[in-house]
Design the sequence.
């Protein structure tokens, strides 16, 4: 498995940094190759500029950071996101990563007069590990938009057999050291099981 | 009646810009006092910084980095968003507006662990948007941008607020006629809001 981990949190000693570490450790232990993109540390600017929008359908990338991100997306066959859920969605910096990196020609194709065609068909595994201020019930009532943007929206442009894994620590503001360490164990266990199920299917990897 | 119009598209020749112009014209025609907030033109930074994250729950100081935006939000009676849906979400610049401006003590309070809306001044809420994908595609993805607007944002404004969500789907293949009729619909429906 070639795993790309996209990490988005503004400070280094957050609980999300702990989740990132357990995701990386679990992937390494499962024998995966890993690349991590730390969007805040890279100073990634999320705004899609006027120039980028005008040339959206025929992108000309002259930003080294974007080139590196796009190369990483093309390289991987598994894509994982680690971020805090803010306002029921991904942080603006991660949303900007989707807007500026998952562009036509990279993530999807728009044939003349046809519907959008998937472009990430080399990605067969997709994962989201997040934290939510809201409770599980409230997140469910709202419809978990952040999770859906990624696990359904982005999933639509991945391989048709792409499988997903998800874990969230809800009600973060009431979290305790105990609930947080239990969550870290959940992340490790879910991810290890997921990776095992994905790499034990040779038919899928041979298609790469 | 004061309307805050939050616009999030970088290009002046886009259809979103045409929708923005239509919303401004319609609101002025129906007697609103319009505060036009073009996030790209104003150079709004969507990045919630490390310091902002640390002070997020400190209500005495959390608004400092974005005070002018908070004041504009608190002065408004109506809140109108005009933006394209990209990748099943808001453009990052608009997502950052929620991350940075819709703060504890501004748009909501947490009382006994429960979230309570605080934007009682907003009695009208509307979103005007376009999707690249079809409605079926958006439905399959759970239509996150529609849910964000009609649920959590709706939840923090006045309880009795009237709400409108106007969307043109399958934008990439929309004919001139379809776009014109959407502009017309926006004029009618936004014009009917008070």
Sequence:
């Amino acid at each position: 498995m070639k795993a790309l981990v996209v990490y988005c949190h503004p400070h280094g000693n957050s609980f999300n940094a702990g989740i990132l570490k357990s995701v990386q450790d679990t992937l390494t232990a499962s024998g995966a190759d890993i690349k991590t993109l730390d969007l805040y540390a890279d100073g990634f600017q999320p705004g899609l500029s006027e120039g980028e929008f005008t040339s959206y359908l025929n992108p000309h990338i002259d930003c080294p950071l974007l080139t590196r991100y796009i190369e990483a997306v093309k390289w991987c066959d598994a894509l994982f996101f680690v971020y805090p859920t803010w306002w029921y969605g991904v942080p603006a910096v991660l949303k900007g990563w989707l807007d500026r990196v998952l562009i036509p020609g990279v993530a999807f194709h728009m044939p003349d007069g046809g519907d959008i065609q998937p472009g990430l068909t080399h990605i067969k595994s997709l994962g989201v590990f997040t934290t939510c201020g809201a409770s599980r019930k409230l997140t469910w009532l709202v419809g978990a938009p952040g999770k859906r943007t990624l696990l359904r929206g982005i999933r639509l442009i991945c391989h048709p057999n792409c499988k997903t894994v998800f874990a969230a620590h809800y009600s973060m503001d009431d979290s305790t050291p105990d609930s947080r360490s239990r969550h870290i164990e959940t992340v490790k266990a879910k991810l290890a099981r997921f990776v095992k199920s994905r790499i034990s299917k040779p038919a899928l990897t041979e298609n790469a | 009646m004061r309307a805050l119009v939050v616009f999030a598209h970088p290009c002046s020749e886009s259809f979103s810009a045409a929708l923005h112009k239509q919303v401004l014209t319609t609101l002025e025609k129906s007697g609103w006092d319009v505060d036009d907030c073009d996030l790209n033109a104003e150079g709004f930074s969507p990045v919630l910084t490390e310091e902002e994250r640390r002070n997020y729950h400190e209500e005495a100081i959390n608004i400092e980095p974005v005070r002018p935006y908070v004041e504009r939000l608190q002065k408004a009676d109506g809140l109108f968003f005009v933006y394209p849906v990209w990748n099943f979400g808001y453009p990052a610049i608009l997502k950052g507006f929620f991350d940075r401006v819709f703060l504890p003590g501004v748009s909501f309070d947490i009382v006994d662990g429960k979230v309570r809306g605080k934007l009682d001044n907003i009695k009208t809420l509307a979103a005007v948007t376009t999707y690249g994908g079809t409605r079926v595609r958006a439905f399959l993805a759970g239509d996150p941008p529609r849910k964000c607007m009609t649920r959590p944002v709706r939840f923090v404004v006045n309880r009795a607020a009237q709400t409108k969500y106007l969307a043109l789907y399958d934008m990439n293949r929309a004919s001139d006629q379809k776009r014109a009729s959407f502009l017309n619909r926006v004029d009618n429906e936004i014009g009917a809001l008070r």
Notes: The mean pLDDT of chain A is 92.
